[in-house]
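Fold this sequence, please.
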Amino acid sequence: MNENNANKCAICGRPAWGDEAEREWVNRNTGERETIRARFCIYHHPDHEKKAEEFWNTFLANFNSERSEANPFGLLEREGDNLLHDFSQFIFPKFLESIKWEDRPFISANFFLAKFQGWANFSGVQFQGDAHFQWAQFQGEASFSGVKFQGGANFLDVEFQGKAYLLGAQFQGGAYFSGARFQGGADFWWARFQGGANFPDSEFQEEAHFSKANFQGKADFRRAQFHGKADFSEAQFHGKADFSWAKFQGGASFREVEFQGKVSFESLQFQEGADFTKAEFQERAYFSGVQFQGKAIFQGSQFQGWADFGWVKFREEASFLGVEFQGGAYFLGARFQGKANFSWAKFQGEAYCLLAEFQGGAHFLEVKFQGKASFREAKIFSEILFKDTFFSDLVDFRGAELSEHGDESEPTYGRLIFDGIEITDPAKLVLMGISNPDPEHCGIAFWLTRTPIVRGAEIRGTMLFDERGRMVVLEEYAERVLKEDKKGLENLPEEERRRREREIERRNRDLRLQSYRAVRLNLEDEGMFPEAGELYVREMSIKGDDKPLLRCFLLPWDLVKNFFKKMFKRSKIKNDKELGGCGYKVLLLAYRCLSKYGESWLRPLGWLLLVLILFSVVYMFTGFEGMEYSYSLFSKYGIISFQGLLRDFSWALIYSFKSLIPGFGQLSPRSTSAWTTALTVVEGVLGAVIITLLLLAIRRRFRR
């Protein structure tokens, strides 16, 4: 190296300043970043502390001067007919607070591989052309608040070691932050991106604020990493927004965001909560493959186009309260490990939950499905509640599976509960082929639902009833509601608490009766009479407390006890309903025993045969006209006469038959004793009652 070159800057050829030093540079021949030891000018020398004052004096004095032989420190470089500010590979000491940029607009500015040792304050600066900051390094805070970039803004692979302030910055051309690293947080509040906003592969190690930012072109955040909280609340995206394969390790807020173009969150990870409250998606929204490790909140959001949540994984609660899906809503293969809440949502298009998995339960309170709703082959490990839900089209659960989930200490059971639902076309409620390997705990219940169930829905295959005709899920649901209603009564006085509990129990019982009656009428409307009959038996059993053996002993005692209480006014019986309730239950008990509440014609027929035989045997002892032995059934030698016994029993059957069946009383044989006459009256009454019940049961069968 000759003496002239030794006194010049190894990077730009300006007069050297200070001693020889070592720094990083980009080799002009190879284009690679290398470390070099040489002499440098005041602009490129790394000793920023010693040169600070002289640097800024030289910089400001030559800011608008063109570089020439006469003025080698000029900062304007000519490229053809254009001038640009060339600050490439400069090492800037801490900015002086006295610097005013209002009178110093940048033409096209090149800060390639520049290094800012301290606070870099560009607030209020205007870049009239392109601004290049590629590979620049900001070791302190960097402020671009209110900056106007009239050309392109190139921040490729820039490193912000301190906090970056870009509040209200205006990017009239493209903004390129690909590969940029924000180590101290980034504020883009009220920033305006009129061209594309490109942040692919960028990294935000602290909080990133894009609240109320305006993206008029495409917003590209593919593969971006947000280690801290990411705030996009109230931002506006006029073009396509792409967050595919991005990663949000802190919380992410998209509250009241407006997406006017397509938006993609495909294969994205939210490791903490994601808040999309009142967000508006005017075109298609892709969330396929997203993993929500924390809560996912979409309350009050609007999806005007397709909403694709295919194969999404919700680790915790997923809230879609009041969400409006104007286009199709696709949850194909979605996995809800926490509770899914779709209450008050509106599905104006198709709603597909094919192959979806519900582990934490789901609530569809007052939801409106105006299009098809498909839950085909869904796996249901917990309770799905459709309460006051409206279906206007196909409701398809074919191939769904109800099963148990969780450990033995806290198991959950797959259940479908339809509470007060309404279906405009009952023929489109499809429950066929539902798999239920654990019918003891899993099942389907219709609670206060008066919508006909389609014929062939394989209700038994899904264990709507158990072997006793009891709707398992409905009863457990009612018991849970009863338990919840009783909470908070412990602190009341005992008398008041008991009164409240009786009221709650009565109200719960009435609701159960209404539910059973509604489902029974559904089944009868569709000709599913055996199932309707079993449900009617259950309904009547609830009226009689469903304790036939115990009531046999207690009801008569209750009747007598209440009668004397009424007589001596020792209780506060306000009307005769309470007194007559026990008698009513006695009649219900008899109704059940004799004909299964009119549902069985075999039972009264069996009772007729039993009464016929039983009274025939008794008549042989009390005597009647035509018996061979009027005083004994045995011969005088004490030996049984089989022929005589058979003949007497035959006449006893005839006598019992004429006594049992009304209209045959005048036929032979006749009574010969007072006992026989009394028993004849009793048998006649029993016969009339049993035959009436038999005819009613047969009539019900024929009417069906």
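Confidence is low (pLDDT under 50) at residues 450-473, 546-555, 566-580, 630-639. The two ends are 112 Å apart (CA to CA).
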